[in-house]
Specification:
With 45 residues, this protein is an all-beta fold. It has one domain. Helix content is 0%, strand content 60%. It has no helices and three strands. The chain is elongated, with a radius of gyration of 12 Å.
Length: 45
């Protein structure tokens, strides 16, 4: 589902931040489809 509706997605990398309780995990260079307009990313399974 694409929320922005202004840009197209392109294969690229992003940083994903996961938070649970008192733990924050930052994963860099995650392969994703990234919106060229707003930067929102979409991960595959």
């Amino acid at each position: 589902m694409h929320h922005c509706k202004l840009g197209e997605t392109q294969l690229g990398t992003t940083t994903v931040t996961l938070k649970r309780d008192n733990v924050t995990l930052v994963v860099k260079n995650v392969l994703a489809e990234v919106c060229e307009d707003c930067g929102e990313y979409y991960l595959s399974r």
